[in-house]
Amino acid sequence: MEAQGVLDGLRSRVLLPRRAGRAPRAFGWALPTAVLCGYGFFASLRPSEPFLTPYLLGPDKNLTETQVFNEIYPVWTYSYLVLLFPVFLATDYLRYKPVILLQGLSLIVTWFMLLYAEGLLAIQFLEFFYGLVTATEIAYYSYIYSVVDLTLYQKVTSYCRSATLVGFTVGSVSGQILVSVFDWPLFNLNVISLTAVSVAFAMAWFLPMPQKSLFFHHRQSSTQEERVDIVKVIKELWQDFLRCYSSRPLLCWSVWWALSTCGYFQVINYAQGLWEKVLPSQTSQIYNGGVEAVSTLLGAVAVFVVGHIKTSWATWGEIALAMFSLCIAAAVYIMDSVHNIWVCYASYIVFRIVYMLLITIATFQIATNLSVERYALVFGVNTFIALALQTLLTLIVVDAKGLGLDIFTQFMIYAGYFAAIAVVFLISGTCSIIRKSWKKERRNEATTDGA
């Protein structure tokens, strides 16, 4: 049920509609930014989330490991994939705010069901609503760009992203303290989470309604709603898609984005299950909340540091992706093979830090190589492909209707998956460097002959 995704440290860049225009004079930029930050903080303040697997396996829900890992968690993957594109269009057509409200309502339904729903089918419905929550994150990360001036994009992006990171960190730390120090039952943590997301839903109603969006509403509405043609919009999306992916560097970084995000989703979704097998929560003290908080904070530091690294990513980018992908593969392998909870925790932290660092680089490189300002389209397509691959992987490896493998075998496959990504990019990067070297030699020879 983990939703960091795509993008863990960078979801704030997923939709960046630069054509949205200036802020409506009616409310400026401070009010919508403050309200949206408040919404993001409380929507992310969920102290029970790091303890979801122990809660489902414990006496409150009394589900089996097979039910949780092979029949319940896969529903999130399927629903996220199915809902992503319709929600993407609905977000633009409805102008963001209604979809943010839908996300807030879905959060309430999810945590209300976590408290009171019983049985396999009910929890599977819960996972569907959580898939709706993650699909509608698009609205949160794109709303603010429709109501502020272009010159404020960097500032409001940092505010909104910081609000969600702080909310997640506070939730994880408070959950860990309440469990470890005060011995609170996990049911009570879900009560706190439900209260927090309810506050977020209430705050969302105070968001001003944007007048513009990227595709359906180019001009500010007056007394009459602007008529839209969905066929024309889809054709425009297709033409932009062809133009964007005609760039080989962009295509290369996008392929890594999709492949690695697929594996990332799988690892974070089932990490709690692995920890539960290594050290059962019913008989031992667990520190899932602390691990999530530490990995988030260190990942944020890595994201900040990488922004100040000066290197020729155009030349060495693919080799760097290969080497770091190999580090990720090693972290997942160690997490799976060394059955020690502290080694598992440490490997998970390394895994998340390296991924967040690489996804930052990939985001910047993709943005750099875009021929048109279609950040939303490219990142949306990359995420959709990642989810499609994850769905296939889930169907084969995890789902009870497929192989339904045990958690240790699953993680061994995920380690091999990242190792394969490393090999692919090592070969591609080496060939690319050789080609550039040959071209440089030919240019030097041509210059010498000409002289």
Helices, strands, pairings?
Layout (H helix, E strand, L loop, with lengths): L29 H15 L7 H6 L7 H30 L2 H20 L3 H16 L1 H7 L9 H28 L5 H19 L25 H15 L3 H31 L9 H19 L6 H25 L3 H28 L6 H24 L8 H44 L1
How would you characterize this protein structure?
This protein has 15 helices and no strands. Helix content is 73%, strand content 0%. Mean pLDDT is 84; it is low at 2-26 and 220-226. The chain is an all-alpha fold and 451 residues long.
Which features characterize this protein?
mainly alpha, globular, 73% helix, 15 helices, 451 residues, disordered N terminus
Can you describe this structure in just a few lines?
The chain is mostly helical. It contains 15 helices and no strands. Mean pLDDT is 84; it is low at 2-26 and 220-226.
Number of helices: 15
Euclidean distance between termini CA atoms: 66 Å
> Tell me, what's the shape?
globular
The level of helicity is over 70%
Mind describing the biggest β-sheet?
none
Secondary-structure element string? HHHHHHHHHHHHHHH
* Structural class category: mainly alpha
